[in-house]
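Q: Structure for this?
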Amino acid sequence: MRSLALLLPLVLLLASCNKEDEMRRTYSGLYKVASQERHWPQSDSTVTISDLGTLGLYDNASSIYNNVVFTLVDWPLSWGNNRVGGDQHDQLIGWYSDDVDGSTITFFSNPEPAFFDYVIYTVKHEGGKDYTWTYVEIDAEGAMTYREVWKVSRE
Amino acid sequence: MRPLLFLLLLTVCVHGHAQDRYLALWGGGVIGGINLPTFDAFRGSYDTENAGQLSSGLSGFGTTLGWQAGATVMISPHVGVSLGYMENTATASATLTDGSSRHFRHKLYTPVNGGFPILAGPLEIQPRLGFCQADMSSWTEYPDGTVSYGNERLLNGQYRTYGLFAGLDLAARIKLGEKLHLAVGASWCGVSGSEYSEHNTARGVDTEPFYPYYIPTDYVLWLDLNDANDLTSYDTDAYVKLKGSWYQAFVNLIIDLK
């Protein structure tokens, strides 16, 4: 029974700390951004941009500071609206996933200490290497004013 | 986590043979409920805050569904030591008049779940204790079906906490074969843990707008103080915690490896 007593604290420790690393490894890699649908429900208008390029989510073995490298041909409106990358699109952009079940990816820039410009996408696994990332904006009454849906595939 | 559990069970198995004691493997489904008074307090204040916009208020967590599995080393004909894993999931939701809905999903895991089964004929009583983790996923579903965990609405996000639990299982064993049993029973566990916290780093440090890093039990007051830029006067203990109990019925298939 002594071996069991020794194993219990070990399991306790490992169980509480490795989910974050697991989610980072799950999502890191290169993604082809097949399309980005920009939808304004209140005016019922939609713009779809195809083949935006490649997005690289690099694993820097950090809890949050994992860098993003991209060749997107059009700056994402969701990034612009939240100043991710800065007004001149010249700031470094990082990413991280939540450490619960990977249902979110956050992109951020960190223009000054303890301040983040960020945007959170809801992740849906569409099967195989395909995912959709969805971003939503609302008005003061809570009605959706803008939705951006990225269709991405892991390369 | 699963490889770790497997290694742990393997260790128990080897240990059992070395001592010439027998090992039993067990597993099955669970169904029950969870009682979190601080979440109930939050529900009341959420409904108050959104009174004019709700077509149905935030429900309590409904039926929990899950499974459990583990191994028991019988160290005498009537007393054993068990290690197992259990998880259960429950959901709560509210519907707004604009057609959107707010959802909470509570998932509880017990990565370290020990017990001391005592057999008395076909009856089994098992004091149980361990360490657990609970995740509270919170999202909004819009009228067009769009699901968002994003920061456009307060409380959207992924909250997590940990706790310690202790409880009791009572079961009756039905013999199905020489080494095969079915255990049908019920269990109750009390749990005490900390506040559910949102680990989204950017959201946690951003101050404009300020999003709840924890789920306030008095949502109305929290919003008022937030509007007044006076959140420092909010009671630091008034957040939803993993503190309460869960109860469930279970059916386990037991295989004795004698």
